[in-house]
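pinned: reference chain
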Amino acid sequence: MKKTNILIDCHVFDGNFQGTTSYLKGLCTELIHDKTKHFFLAAQNVQHLESIFGPHDNVTFLKYKSKNKFVRLLIDIPNLIRNHKIDYAHFQYVVPPVKACKYIVTIHDVLFLDFPQYFPSLYKIKNRFLFNWSIKHSNIVLTVSNYSRQRIEKHFGQFNVAVTPNAVDPIFFESYDKTRVRKENLEKFGISDYFVFVSRWEPRKNHDGLLRAFVEGNFYKNHELVLVGNEAIPNKKYDEHYASLPDEIKVKVKVLSNIGFKDLVQIVRGATIAAYPSIAEGFGIPPLESVAARIPTVCSNTTAMSEFTFIDQGLFDPYNIPELIQKINDCLHNWPEAEHKSHEVFSQYSWKNSARVFLKAIDEDQKASAASN
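pinned: its C-alpha cells
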C-alpha cells in the first residue's frame, strides 16, 4: 500500500519560539507515529528540526533554499511538492498562490476581524484577502478552538472546519524543585519572587492592564513583574504608563525577550503567580502551561479563554482592573487543587487527540476523493 506523502511547512522553527511553533512541535511529534504516512518536514535550519524530532523511518527533513517568504511560497514549496510527489501540504494561515497538491491550512484565529482596533489597517486588508484565499483553496481547514471555528464560519462561510486544539508540552507536567528553580532563575535572570506574563507584545495582549493592576494593587512592594516575549506591535499605552512610574516601581518590572524554550519552562516554574490578561485570543497556550506546572494562574475570561473553566476562580474580566487585583490576591493566598487542575489540562488538551483529528480529516478527504472518481 502506497504511503501518503505529507509536507509540513516548518519555517516557524527558523525564528523565535511562538504559539505556532508549539502547535507544530506538539502536532508533528504525534503525527509521525503513523507509519502509513511519510512526513516531509521543511525549514531552512534542517539541523534544528532534526534535533527536535529526531530520526524516523517515515520522516524526511527538507531544506528551503531561501529565507524570503515569497520565494518560499512561490518557488521552494512547489518544487519540493513536485520533486517528492507530495499528496498533502500543511501550512499555518497562508497557502501558496499556486496549488501543486492538496492543501491543509490551520487558521489559528481571525481576531483582526472581531477586534479590528488592535491591528494595523494594512494587516487587516492583507490578511482578510490571504485567509479567504487560503481557506477557499484548501482541501482541509483546521483551527485550534471552538471559538475560532465559530468565528471562521461567521466571517468566511466555511462550515467544515476541524478543531485540533493546542496542548501542553509534557515537560510542564513534570515534578520539579521550586527552591532550586528559583535559585537558578535568580542567578541567570536576576528574578526571584515574581508574577510572570508570557506573550509577545501587542496592544490586545493587555500588558498595560496588568501593569496597572501590579501598581494599583501594591504588588510591587513584595513582588516583581516579569514580562516574557518579543515585540510584534508596539503598545503605546503601556509605554506611557511605564514611563510615568517612579524608579522604585520601574526596577520591579523586568522584560525578557528572545527566551529559549528550556529557559521559558524554568521561568514559568519559578513564578509566584502566572497572569494572562489578554483581551482576545484564538486559543492561549501560556495559561495551560502554568496550570500544568501547578502555578497559581489568573486568566482573562474572554474569547477562546472562556473555555478554560478549570482555572475556575482565576478567571477575570480583562477590562476590570479591580477584579484582576482581587483575583491575584485570592490566588496569592489560596490556589486549591493544583494537582487536580494540572490533571484536567492533561486530560482535556492532548496532542494525540489533535493528531487523531488531523489524520481523520485526511482519511475522510481521501475517501471522498475515491468516491467521486
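why pinned: The radius of gyration is 21 Å. Residues 170-348 form a domain with the Rossmann fold fold (CATH 3.40.50.2000).
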